[in-house]
Amino acid sequence: MLVLFTSICFSSSPSCSFQNTILTNITVSNTCSAFNKITIGSNTSLDVIQLKILSNANVQMYEIVNCVGNGSIVQYSYSRMNLKKETNFYNTAKLEMNENSQLTINNKINFWHYSQITFKDRAILNILKEFYINDYVTVVLHHETIINTAYLFYLTDHSIFTMNDDSIIHTLNYLYIYGATLLMNSYTKIIGLEYLNVFNKAQVTLNDHSEINNNLFIFKFENSFLTLNKFSKINNINDFNVIKGSILTMNGIKDTPQITTNTLRFKSGVKLNIAGKSLISVNTEFVFVDSIIIVNNRDIRDLPVVFYSSSKELDIKNSKIQSDSDFDVICSWMAISITNIFPGTKLLLGGKLLRYGTSNKIFCHVEDVINKNVKYSEFYCPCDDMEDWYITPLPNMTSLYVKINSPKTSSKTRFIRSDEFSSESVTIGNTQISFYKSDRVILGISIPETVVMNSFTLTKTVLVVSNTKLIFENKHFNAAININQKFKILVIHCTKEIYNKTSQQCEDPTICDDVNCKYCPLNKNNCITCKNHFSFDNSKCEQIANCELTFSNRCLKCLTGFLLRDGLCVSDATCLLVQFDGKCQICNKNNGYIYNNGECVKSDINGEVTTNNNVVSCYKGFGTNSTNCLKCNDLYKKSELCENGKVTKCDSSSKMDTNGMCKKNTCETPNDQNGRCTTAIDNCIFLSNGKCNECENGYILHNNKCNKNGESNCITQKNFGCLICNNTFYLDELTKQCVSCDSSCLTCVETSTKCLSCPPNMYLSNYKCNTNNELKMKCDRYASFGSGCVVCKDGYYRVGLDCFKCDQKCKTCNNKYSCLTCNSTNYKTNGGDCLPQSDIVGCAVNVTQSGCLKCQDGYHIANTNECQKCNDNCNTCTTTRNKCTSCVNSRVLLANKSCVGLSQVSKCKEITHSKCSKCSFWYSPIEDGTLCESRAVWWVILVVVLFVLIVFVILIISIIVVTKIILNKLHTHEIEKTITLFNMNKSNINFVPLRGGVSVSSTVIDLNSDIEQIEVNKETRQVLCVGNTNKNATKIQFTISSNITKFTIRVDPEVVTLKSNFACEFSVFVKPLCSCKINNTIQLVS
């Protein structure tokens, strides 16, 4: 019935009666068609002019539609509009589509110069030809809105296109983005494209779960910016080209491809910024020439940046990588044969992995386990036993199955007991498992024999379950869990005992901790069965309280005031009075309970007043059946409200009869367009909301009646009323009559004083006709063709032929809100506004109408001509307030342009000119003064060297002296064995002094002092003591004439060196050779 009605309305829709130029608000509430060219709004008026298509209305327009200046088209919920010819929006014009509205454009549509488009709540725009968005146009798509384009889609010249919620663009051909911005949020999508061209510093940003998804699609990205955030992605691209200084930034937080393409080419100064965990999947060809990869927050534990599944050789030339840590660059299905691809990289695993850095550890990432078969992300996994590799489950993995072969003995030492990965990994036999990317994982182990497990300092939560025994700290077990760096064994192997989970010990099952427990086979702290007359209470066997009669572990009858529940006696807050059999008699109404079939049940939430046994009254819209509250419509058909067992209001399709019941309306055939019955109007064939919209042939609509006679001042009349009035009349939309214009107007619209054109020597301004006398104070040049102004004085702006005063903050302006220059006390901001010059704080020179040219220390230039205060620690800073160029006293300027205190620069003692100028002993500031580094002090080294040399010399001299003393001592000791030396001061010999400080005990050696004659040929000994009275040591020896022939003489010792005041005993031996007299002289030499 509804479809038939709609079809009839569409085929016989009346004319919309639109003027060629719409300068007043117009509302359309039904189905109509327009056959004339229509212009909505004006560039010379500030009043908003709206064409409103109300809910469920349907409008067809068969000629060109232009919306300009203050004009706008607004479609309300479920409205439909079809534009057959070209459609244009100019100069801030607006298009707004609301809930479930639909706009179909059979020709091309253009949006120009600050136009605005807003789509809301499942609105649909269908465009059969070109779609142009040019010159600062703003487009916003909201909840589930759809744009369908069949041909070209252009987004150019600083326009901003924002997609929100679940909005979709479906285009079957080309999308061009030139110097504009496309922002995709939430779950938005662009699908069906064949060609996307982004160039001239355009910006495309995909956030949240947004997606560009196409088949056989070419993507060209030139000198522009592409940013992929969070879970956003670009899928199924055939040819992806990023060239000429473009910047591609990937901030994905999921370990999945953010770009999937057959061919990927980076050429000519392209920057690939990788700041997340996502990756790029390339199927056919990968080219990277004269470009750079910049990687942050990524290391070898993450997936490789590029997965390349083609056998075609990589084409990488004149490119480089920037990264603070080692990471995997490319995972290739075929071995990479070329070398020196990027500086600082190397090939691993037979050329299938290209790594930046020096590490040799391999991480194989698990993305799924199917039928106990592990699926790895990388082509080269799993690795053999000669590699130092880790099994690494991805974040989506909550369980992991690992089959471990018997440990093999290898000459290569692979496993390290503790390294930088210890806190995230376990080692089972010769298998290493890293939980860097996952947590709360169930790890299933299949191994043919018992092996040792090491968890080191694992910080992740992991449940380990094995089909055979594992060994950890000499304990055999099958299951264990690691939580908060504590490894707890869950299933341990015991022989005859039972494993105690609390103590983690094997214990005797027959001994229970609870004396009232009868049986505890699994754990002596976990009772299974209590003794008679006891039952479980908080995991303990307690005597059944408040019970009058018990049997085994259950109570059969409770004491008065208690309820019997599950064999126990409990005090129930739902019951106020208990019967003798233990059942409740009166329920606790205050707690929201009523009595029903012997039980206390929760009363209906829609109940307003209740008693112990039933619901007395319900809230609005509900009625009671004494037990529950039901909707009125469930109790009484076709009712909306009810009370005290009666209907008080029927629904919209019914009316109340004399019995108080709701009956369906008797009107079966609605005569109104809105589907209802209304009072018929004679000779009217089309009614809407009680008003006649169209009369029968031969009748004219006038004052909501169909008359035979027409309107005398009407030029064009139809059976639904007058369409066009005479020039000096206007059409009253309410009465459909032609009313005379005011004498001041030549033509008018809506009212008699709202002029559209003026008599000679007058000009139109804001729908009024004025003379040049009103322009004397504000016009510089009058129109040569009649009245009106073409050039306004400073301080005024022109609208049409009239001049209006600028805002007081402006000196000159081009409209009420936009200043060209500011007055003498204001300055013009970067955004075009005029603000008081006193608002600028921190300017080093006088503020002018152009703003501030130079800021004081402590401030920086902001918005090209304003000053903004630097960070409190900055003395001067850049355009970013937290980036300092110099610091306040006692602060050091670091490389990241932040200022820190003395305590934050280790070893620094003094700061000068934002640099550390003096450090602790043995430290010196580096060239930029940001830190102190250990540096040797030359004079300390010199002092140490000199000290060592002096000590060395002294040591040598000491050794020489000591050696000499020792030798002298030894020599003296040897001499003392054969020579008698003594101290002259301690001797009683009277010495006779000789010359030279020498003294003798006697000057004459008398051989006959003891005997008259001495024997011939026999030596006779005589003793002579010689002493040294000099201050210095003196050498003493005797000399004898060599001409002696009659005897021989010798002295022992021959030579002696005497110290001061020491004397020596000399033995003089004389041997006569014949009988003779000996009288000779012996010389003493000293």
TrEMBL record:
Q: Which InterPro entries is this protein grouped with?
A: Furin_repeat (IPR006212), Growth_fac_rcpt_cys_sf (IPR009030), TKL_Ser/Thr_kinase (IPR053215)
Q: Alphabetically list the UniProt keywords.
A: Membrane, Transmembrane, Transmembrane helix
Q: What stretches pass through the bilayer?
A: 936-962
Superkingdom of source: Eukaryota
The molecule here is called Uncharacterized protein
- The scientific name of the source species is Entamoeba invadens IP1
